[in-house]
Write a structure and sequence with these properties.
CATH superfamily of the domain at 10-131 and 189-211: FlgN-like
Number of strands: 2
CATH architecture of the domain at 10-131 and 189-211: Up-down Bundle
Order of helices and strands: HHHHEE
Strand order of the largest sheet: 1-2
Distance between the termini: 20 Å
CATH class of the domain at 10-131 and 189-211: Mainly Alpha
Shape: elongated
Strand content: under 5%
Structural class: mainly alpha
Radius of gyration: 24 Å
């Protein structure tokens, strides 16, 4: 779509916007599927599968970028200065057909639900990954050469995959000892769904940020 071209008829522009929202929903479905598959791959510690899924996720992220640019072009072409779909729908100077407006509202509602689900999946995956890294770090420490008289424990493992801390048999009380492990850093937040459809949802503790303005 050429942003410098003349505006298309309003009814056609609304159809184009509805089509863009429909495509975005399909991409969001794909993102959900990948995040669910990533959860299983993390649990199984399937590194190859995780790499493959991340490659697929990157392609979907590129699709959201393309769809967002198309939305911007459409708004610019039509002279719509509204920063979001909600403001566009609330503009009483625009004569939406009732059915067309209701269809856009329903698309918006579905996208909001999808975005919330994506954010929740991101949090789950991040917590599982943290638990897996904590457990793996503990095993590496054990393999790396702990002496019999210096049992190795780990720093507050996540309950999901927590292993029992070692007990020092040389102490009368059998007290737990602790050895500080290198804590894994949270990955840098990055865009996941980048269309402007009225919501900005960041999954806390996740490696992706969901920017929307539906």
């Amino acid at each position: 779509m050429n942003p410098t071209s003349h505006p298309t008829p309003f009814s056609q522009a609304v159809k184009d916007l509805d089509s863009l929202l429909g495509e975005t929903m399909l991409v969001a479905n794909g993102i959900e599927d990948i995040l669910r598959a990533k959860r299983e791959a993390i649990i199984k510690n399937d590194i190859e599968q995780l790499v493959s899924l991340d490659m697929g996720l990157e392609l979907l992220i590129q699709s959201t970028d393309r769809l967002e640019q198309s939305r911007r072009d459409l708004f610019k072409q039509q002279g719509w200065a509204h920063p979001s779909l909600t403001e566009l729908l609330n503009d009483t100077t625009l004569l939406f057909a009732s059915a067309a407006k209701q269809a856009l509202v329903e698309r918006q509602r579905c996208l909001h639900n999808q975005i919330a689900q994506i954010a929740a999946l991101q949090v789950q995956n991040y917590r599982l990954l943290e638990a897996s890294l904590s457990y793996t770090s503990h095993l590496v420490s054990l393999i790396a050469g702990a002496r019999d008289d210096q049992p190795v424990t780990y720093d507050k493992p996540t309950p999901l995959l927590a292993a029992k801390p070692s007990i020092n048999p040389n102490t009368k009380t059998g007290a737990k000892t602790s050895a500080k492990m290198g804590a894994s850093k949270s990955p840098v937040a990055r865009p996941l769904v980048g269309h402007a459809y009225d919501t900005q949802a960041t999954a806390p503790g996740s490696d992706t940020t969901i920017n929307t303005a539906v």
